[in-house]
Amino acid sequence: MQRxxxxxxxxxxxYFTSSEYAISNLxxxxxxxxxxxxxxxxxxxxxxxxxxxxxxxxxxxxxKKIEEQQGIICFSKTWHNPLLWGHYADxxxxxxxxxxxxxxxxxxxxxxxxxxxxxxxxxxNPLYIRELSLTKxxxxxYESEYRLHIDLKTLEGESGFYFKYFSDEINLQEVILGVKCxxxxxxxxxxxxxxxxxxxxxxxxxxxKDFKIVENRLVTNG
Length: 222
What we know:
Blueprint: E1 10-17, H1 19-28, E2 30-32, H2 53-69, E3 70-76, H3 82-88, E4 95-102, E5 107-108, E6 110-112, H4 126-133, E7 135-137, E8 145-151, E9 163-165, E10 171-177, H5 185-194, E11 200-206, E12 213-215, H6 217-220
Parallel strand pairs: 6-7, 10-11
Antiparallel strand pairs: 1-4, 2-9, 3-8, 4-10, 5-8, 11-12
């Protein structure tokens, strides 16, 4: 009899941050959960045609409620886009953390040119609101974003902040040092060796033929 395969399908995704916050994340084995109101896109949960004042009023009420109850962690499918490093990793001085996360937990962002059509009735439709939470303007497409939605009611906050701890489902696999990161690769590797953790540490560089950030193999393998 063939045994069932219970292993979950996972996806490698990347979380960008400054070197300072990255070291804190690694030491405490956790990531700070973002709140919608703190994200850099003012269209979060509002990517709909709000010409109708009634719709505008109702959707903003829904958004406020969601902001109180739900947080998210934003990842990218890639670490090679230089814009990601420039915008989210302290102008290339930061670090990208690569995690393996069950595909079923991740939600892919959809990028659109136009705002969605909406009615007052749609504002109370959970499926439609979920769609809005995964909709961004097409010019954000370079992020290749995947989101992990988190119910804040299941967590205990710390001075108003919430965190998701590393686990089998938030499984750290890689640490990529930015092009301008001043942390030596030897120091980062020593950090994991002292903790008896197997994590691949990569030094990045700019590519020679493309507008990409790539692995500096001479340093990584040296």
